[in-house]
Amino acid sequence: MITLIDYKAGNLTSVRKAFSYLGQDSVVTDDPKQVREAQALVLPGVGHFCTTERLASSGVRDAVSEAIGRGIPFLGICVGMQWQFAGSTEAPGTEGLALFEGTCERFQTTLKVPHVGWNRFRRTRQGAQSRLLDGVPDDSFVYFTHSYRAPVVDGVSAVTTYGETFASAVERDNVFGVQFHPEKSGDTGLRILKNFCSAAERSAR
Amino acid sequence: MSTGITKRIIACLDVTKGRVVKGVQFVDLIDAGDPAELAHLHATSGADEIVLLDITATSDARPILIDVVRRTARQLFVPFTVGGGVRSLDDASALFDAGADKISINSAAIKTPEIITEIAERFGSQAVIIAIDAKRKVGGATSGEGTVAAEVYLAGGRIATGRDAVEWAREAESRGGGEILLTSMDCDGTRNGFDCPLTAAVATAVNIPVIASGGAGSGDHFVDVFKAGCADAALAASIFHFGIHDVRQLKAQLQNAGIPVRLPC
To answer: In chain B, whose CA is at the least distance from the CA of A18?
Structure first.
């Protein structure tokens, strides 16, 4: 069972639908108790970084930290991945989980922002054995839509270039994050979500 | 430096009464099939995105068909936009709940522009596409400076607004719109090519992606709209529905012309 964290920003339907297609049961909650007891957690996300403020005020943030401490598989998508960093200049007062160092910043490019559409990723040296990206070759296309991007630091498993190179996936132990939307990235994205389901299954055993 | 991003090919389903239809310059509708089946077919044939527009929701003053949206979204794993008759935050919420990733607003955005900001604040700008149906003004041909005079129309091309397309696109961006879907009413359904000067005028005036629509008839038209038209994405309906053009074949042609596309797909 995968627990999808609802923080009243954006919509969870697409992610839930993708898990359902993969035959994976999921439940949606904003209750810290349910988050604490989850077997696997997903934090989807679209929209503004400040929406994650609600996670702190509702007690979900602490519950997520506790679950991660126990080794529960945790996948952050888009803003959900950015939240795994220290913070974002999009909402300077809002703290992330700081599982990865550095702060997300707006694209510094003359290209159009947001970065919307299909782009490629390639693994970093650290990402060579990524479990999340298992079976998905470098240069596969995935769908992005974001204006802020995470820095390339320790723990980044894949990078993408749009005017500059940024973190498109992170991975450390059972913490995973993707800047792109696997639920909108066709077969490539479904494979990545399936890999997360496998990590969740292994962990539940 | 390589941008990495690819130009998107978007398959559009114009829907009325739950069926996909296609007309010429917004009239003379003919049946083209079931929305869910066609969406799935296009996605597996290589389309980068699917757009479903309920083209008579506004003129019939009725809400969009939620069950059609839900059914179409169920097994669709590429970005899915829904538009037509979105008048309020509640309308938008219902569509997102039914599985839309983005909503497209047209008439309501002109009448009450605050709705753009309202939906963007709740669901993010990336989820809000501003659809602009534009028609060249008589005598409004391209000037030496490249300015293009085109007027914005509402309700599927039935009502003239007096608003300038470029100026409205800028305002829509400033209010929180995430993308512009620009349809040339002059070119729509003709298969004689996109309105490249108009597309370029809008695409260079805003800093958000512009999707060109109306007039696709051949691969060369797509090459033109990405090069001369500076479009970030191009949308077509009829040429895909009737299998005249294979999306992968089209993408191969674009790639050969030096345009980055998602291939293999």
So the answer is: B77
